[in-house]
Amino acid sequence: MLDTAKTSKVEFDYSGGERLTMNMGPQHPSAHGVFRAILTLEGETIVGVDAVIGYLHRCHEKLSETLTYAQYPSIASKTDYVAAMTSELAYVMAAEQIGKIEVPKRAQYLRVIMAELQRVASHLLWLGTWCMDMGGALGGGATVFLYCIRERELILDLFESLVGARLLYGFYQVGGTRYDIPDGWAQKCRETINLIDARIGEYESLLEDNPFFLARAQGVGVISRELAEDVGIAGPLLRGSGVNFDLRRAAPYSSYEDFTFNVPVETGGDCFARYRVRMVEFRESIAIVRQALDRLPDGAISSRPGLKSVAQIRIPKGEAYARVEGPRGEVGCYLIADGSAKPYRMKWRGASFSNLAVLPHIIPGHKIADVVAIMGSVDPVFGEVDR
Amino acid sequence: MPAWLSPLVAPFIVLNVVIGLVTYVTLLERKFAARMQSRIGPYRVGPHGLLQPIADALKLMMKEDIVPRTADRRVYNLAPIVFLVPCMLIFATIPFAPGLGVADLNIGILFFLAVSSMEIVGLFMAGWGSNNKYALLSAMRAVNQIISYDLPFIFAALVPVLLAGSLKLSEIAAAQQGLWFIFYPVIGQLAFIAFVVSTLAAENRVPFDILEAESELVAGFRVEYSGMKFALIQLGEYAHVIGSSFLGAVLFLGAWAGPGPEWLGPLWMLLKAMFLFLLITWVRWSFVRIRVDQILTLSWKVLLPFTLLLLVSTAFVVVWRAGV
Amino acid sequence: MSNPVLPSSPTAKRPHGPEGPAPLRSSPTRVVSPLSVIRAVTKALWVTFLNLFRKPVTVHYPDEERKYPDRYRGLLALVYEKDTGEEACIGCRLCEYVCPPAVIKVEMLKTEKRNYAKSFSLELYACEFCELCVQVCPTDAIVMMKSFDLATADRREMLLDKDRLHAIGLQHQQSWATGNLLRAMQGPPKMARAEEVHAKPAGSQA
Amino acid sequence: MTREQAKALIDERFSSAQVDGDAPTSAEATASRPIVVTLPVDQWTAFAQFAKTTLGCRFFSFSSAVDWKEQGLEVVARIDNLDDGVGVMMKARLGPGVSACPSLVPVFRGAEWMERECYDMFGIQFEGHPDLRRMLLSDDWQGHPLLKSYAVDTPHPPYR
Fold first, then answer.
1. Complex ipTM value
2. Which of B37, B39, B282 is nearest residue C45 as measured by Cβ atoms?
3. Closest among D53, D61, D43, D66 to D111, alpha carbons compared
4. Across the interface, do C2 and D109 touch by the CB < 8 Å criterion?
5. Does residue B285 belong to the interface with chain C, where contact is any CB pair within 8 Å?
6. CATH assignment of C76-197, given 3.30.70.3270, 1.10.357.10, 3.40.605.10, 3.10.20.310?
7. Which of B68-72, B96-100, B209-213, C6-10 comes out lowest in average pLDDT?
8. Which pLDDT does position C8 carry in this prediction?
């Protein structure tokens, strides 16, 4: 294995039949954040990968030991900043599981609506950046990227009118949610998701059986079912490799059992299978949001009084592992509480950390252009990888 | 006008017209692409961004010209010029109007094709000279791609030559008065598609632009260039694209034929070339780039046999038409 | 097989994981026949062509201002009380304790009638706009404005002191959220269970 | 393979393991709650192998550690049987002052990065790990941040 110290000074040696060590990242345009892959090349084919991460490490786990249960939810969204709504949910549910705090029905429905809207927004960003990586910033990829961003802005407008912020919300609170939907929001939300439903049809006709796209996506970056489970990848990657597992169906939380939706599974395991899984997930999430909006019950949005001071929420001694089905897979929060206002230990299971761990196993044998396509289809978010 | 001056006047005028055209074509492309992506494109510099190309040119001229310490100095400095000269030479034989043109050689199209494949030398010099891994990889890719696409480009360009029966571009244009070669029953359309596809590949436009594939090789062979050298390479690339679209206009769209009085010829010629250019831009902003090995397989296994077959069949058709 | 297996022959076989061929696919592989190529290419081109006639979505920022929703979390500011016109802040330091990045620093000034804030500093460059300070403020002193443009060339200008905060308060339009409204929206559970539907938004705060 | 069968198998095969210390809460919660197994350290890899083969827990969710100050470090790992929805939370106390633990990499390849992060944050030496170096922090970093002894950045006057 190449140890990082030695590879810092990297030169050519033209002794024929030699291997070129090339550095992809950390400022590489298609690195999806700050990630450095040291590729060993033979011509165009890659024979070895050493991934260097940790550029965005803020030690969320130490931070959570210094912040109270009231403060940390708005910081939890900084782990997976592309899907802030789902990452906060894991922390809040873990605390509620330990403290056995009951969440009112309306708050559960609000959480489902926001999580599914966030999944659509996050998948839109995935599709845009993936096509941009494969198509080039001055080419067809940028067209799909701008379409996706145009639609994602509509969802961010919804979140902005609900919470006031566009990316990191702090919408959750132990015991329920901090905000209720303003009047007229539900109607605007229905219009937005109808528009997005139509626009997704447009993207599919732009990409679906487009020979150039198929040539880049089919048969590239195949993850076998056994490797998928062994490394612990989750979400669309797992379902793309043939494992029928979705937390919303296997261990329903926050009243997901009230909604009917089907879980897409592809057995291909390659980039195209993951693409197909996510495109179906777009429509499933929109269906869930419609059902949740139609059956949104009235009542309180939090089972605890409004937050008045920093140490107001105290959780009794205990531990719990809460899991949420984020857009990138299982986001888990393993929380140990010692009865005070601050948790004793919090382990954050980021979905992208395990998803990224599969790269060194599947990249060898591909070309450089494939690395970009595989990275895009794995869709890592480096806030969640480096925590 | 003194005798020694007259041969210089026409090339001087054409050169300046081309440079002016190239700068404003970049603006046209950016505006057109922006509208396709539901945004606006350059808007701030001048009314509706009309002065943007001039601003870009001035900016590039003022930019500091950095030469990497480990670069192979002579090759690095010579590369942009060697790349630019062929791209400008291709305008020599293009007839803009019946009499208007720098040099109407009787081997017009042969000259065009020969010169346009010279640019690969400048490109590889740029890739090699800048002593940068990304540049070297992209230069190697460039050599593969352009060489493998020159042949289909030549065969597709030869189909109108067969139909018109002469290499002289003005005669080809004259032969199309009645019927533009693109409307020639079957052969015209197929040859036009082959021509467009191989033009896309010869100038590394998307979906074949693996040369400066930003997501993998950052900026390809131009990565170490800055300032005026970068502008020269950019100028050369766009000049090549416009040259090919002019050639396409002459070969397939009946150069200056068009309704209206005679003197409107050059305008029609310009409009047709711009239509072809927008077609290339339209394709550029709708497709994803494909991998190196797929490009090469497409060229050798699909495009080359197809254009060869097309050429032979046109020959038969011409002989059969002449015979009957 | 911990680190990646380096394929023996340089010309690596068809690129799929070192685990051997992938299982069969459920969605049929899209075979690329000439006809499907033409159809797909025209369909893709049609989409971009269609978009040529849609209105661009760009907002010309400095000239046109985007319409902000009324719960917008913008700049922080201190306000004066409606009736007496005094400063609303009583220096109780609740916001200082609740602020996750600890950017607020308050010192209390005790007087007999009521307390004031002697000094109030807020480091805007480290603030995360999470609105917890607005939520815990008992006297609705600190609120958020509907604007974000406080770009400065010098970081030290972002260290806002009390009168700068008051100035911002007068300059921009205040967004909807204040401490009492937020706490009322979250609704005390007892109230919700006693009555059946909506908790009264008025100051029913116990 | 329901939850009860798995618990029975564990009791019978690993007598020294303590299963499910805390009392079960509402029925619905137990269904998705994992089986918590506290093991002695030397059976760590053996139990993982047993869980993967007989219990069918092939999905490796995560592995981490907890610093209990004087009682020493504790290693935690979570593996799941996706088809039957059974989750197993493995725990092992390393004892005060001990910071060595057998590695799970021979059983689960996903453990490679997780254990490198554990070493980076807690300083636990995993025997049998192919390439144990720091995962998130730079190679020349001193100390292991997540230990309780590692000083936290105490609240401070506006230093910026």
1. 0.81
2. B282
3. D61
4. yes
5. yes
6. 3.30.70.3270
7. C6-10
8. 34
